[in-house]
Write a structure and sequence with these properties.
- It contains ten helices and 14 strands.
- The protein has 325 residues and is an alpha/beta fold.
- The chain has a six-stranded parallel sheet, with helices on both faces.
- Helix 4 (145-153) links the parallel strand 8 (130-134) and strand 9 (159-163).
- Helix 9 (262-275) runs antiparallel to helix 10.
- It comes from Mycolicibacterium aromaticivorans JS19b1 = JCM 16368.
- GO terms for molecular function: 1-phosphofructokinase activity; ATP binding.
């Protein structure tokens, strides 16, 4: 089973515009979609579509609209009860696929609820192959909570992935010595924030065919204790770096429609490939195929296996940065 954890879930409302968003102007909407969301929920939805045994763990009241939405999507879940309502996030997608996100902070989680959420994760981890911890932390949750959960999962016979940003990501990286997940999935800005490298420099280098700066940045994290870095860089592709090597994957040509859920789909693809027995290049290939397929879909739609084209994703092996002169 694959357990996904979303401490700050949401109802994701995506508004699609037929034109470019202009600040202060009046716009007419082309379409509106509403889906259960939050990064871990998106991973669970994608894996459920792929027929994998998945469980989404999250805080939500019994009759919250998110619970109703998960039931309608047939996504198995464990909801830890809370008093507040799950937040609603708004994404505005333009005609060229550019997406503007406006996210609410989320319901406050008190110490008792947080302890119950942590215990639920540990209970389900006992029979899990993967535990995927994803997204922002809601008010009331300390920045080092992900690091604490990863440390508590160390004795369990499961792999752990973390996809977060800002202070929770920094706290996790600071604890790599005792709480290193099997995979972290930073984008260019998150990788830059952890390594002191300019994000635009990483993207520009990769766009120009030079993966060295990205590999070097990821290698910093490997040297600090990270096991595998899956760096997703949007249209520029993605890199996978571990202690045995590094690989670059180039995405297929697509017409982008929405970036909502693309990074979550990438992580779902990585986990799906790993469960299927793929080695590192195959895991990266599946991750990029999933992320590209998601970006080509409208709103917050997630790809099914029928929409994944592995043959269109080229993977190239790169010599480990530390061995080059």
């Amino acid at each position: 089973m694959i357990v996904t954890v979303t401490p700050n879930p949401s109802i994701d409302r995506t508004v699609t515009l037929p034109t470019t968003l202009v600040r202060g102007a009046v716009h007419r909407v082309q379409s509106v979609t509403t889906e259960p969301g939050g990064k871990g929920v998106n991973v669970a939805r994608a894996l459920t579509l792929a027929g994998l045994d998945t469980l989404a763990v999250l805080p939500a009241a019994r009759h919250d609209p998110l619970v109703t939405a998960l039931l309608s999507c047939a996504v198995p879940f464990h909801a830890v009860p809370i008093d507040g309502a799950v937040r609603t996030n708004l994404a505005i997608t333009e005609s060229d696929g550019t997406t503007t996100k406006i996210n609410e902070p989320g319901a406050v989680i008190d110490e008792i609820t947080l302890a119950a959420l942590t215990q639920a994760i540990l209970d389900h981890a006992a029979r899990a192959r993967w535990v995927v911890l994803s997204g922002s932390l809601p008010p009331g949750v300390p920045d080092d909570w992900y690091a604490d959960v990863v440390a508590q999962l160390q004795p369990y016979d499961c792999k752990v992935a973390v996809d977060t940003s800002d202070a929770p990501l920094a706290a996790l990286a600071a604890a790599f010595g005792t709480a290193a997940p099997d995979v972290i999935k930073p984008n260019s800005e998150e990788l830059a924030s952890l390594t002191g490298v300019d994000a635009q420099t990483l993207e520009d280098a990769l766009a120009q065919g030079d993966p060295d700066p990205v590999v070097a940045a990821a290698q910093q994290l490997i040297d600090r204790g990270a096991k595998t870095v899956l760096a997703t860089l949007g249209a520029a592709g993605a890199l996978l770096v571990n202690d045995t090597g590094s690989w670059l994957a180039s995405p297929p040509p697509i017409t982008p429609r929405s970036t909502v859920g693309a990074g979550d789909s990438s992580l779902a693809g990585y986990v799906r490939a790993d469960v299927g027995g793929a080695e590192a290049p195959g895991r990266l290939q599946m991750a990029v195929a999933y992320g590209s397929a998601a970006a080509a879909l409208p709103g917050s739609a997630l790809p099914s296996p029928a929409q994944i084209d592995l043959d269109e994703v080229a993977v190239t092996s790169i010599s480990p940065y530390s061995t080059r002169s």
